[in-house]
Amino acid sequence: SSGINAEWPLRPGNITVGDKDSISYVAPAMIDFNKLTGTLTLSFFIHNAVVALVRNNKNPKNNTRDVTVAFTMVALTYGLVGVLFILTFPLAKSCISDVASQVTKFTKLYTFN
């Protein structure tokens, strides 16, 4: 035994939807308009690069299929990572925003801009 106490994080009670006072409470859906519009704006900006990527494609007739498959795979990947992060986060779910703010402070402090 290495002395490390490892526990599988997907256990009953790690996610609570009904009890708002629980440390495992996760709101079923929250829409923060500012974050949503920022994310959508960035996604539209980045997706302009798709034109450059498919412009010189070998089979232009497959562009629609290829782009659809790529967007679907990216959406599934981001969704899977997000859901697994929420399900396996070991602390109180309200700490997730605290972790994000600490990461933001760290990157502002230690990046060369």
| N-to-C SSE string, H for helix and E for strand | HHHH
Instruction: Tell me the fraction of residues in β-strands, as a range.
Output: under 5%
Mean pLDDT rating? 76
How far apart the termini lie comes to 46 Å
Low-confidence stretches: 1-5
State the helix count.
Answer: 4
Largest sheet: none
Quaternary structure annotation: single chain
- Structural class call reads mainly alpha
Radius of gyration: 20 Å
Gross morphology: extended
Q: What does this entry look like structurally?
A:
- The structure is a single chain.
- The chain is mostly helical and 113 residues long.
- Helix content is 56%, strand content 0%.
Question: Short description, anyone?
Answer:
This protein has 113 residues and is mainly α. It has 4 helices and no strands. It starts with 32 loop residues before the first helix and ends with a helix.
Features:
single chain; 113 residues; 0% strand; extended; disordered N terminus
Write the layout of secondary structure elements.
Elements (H helix, E strand, L loop, with lengths): L32 H15 L1 H6 L8 H26 L6 H16 L3
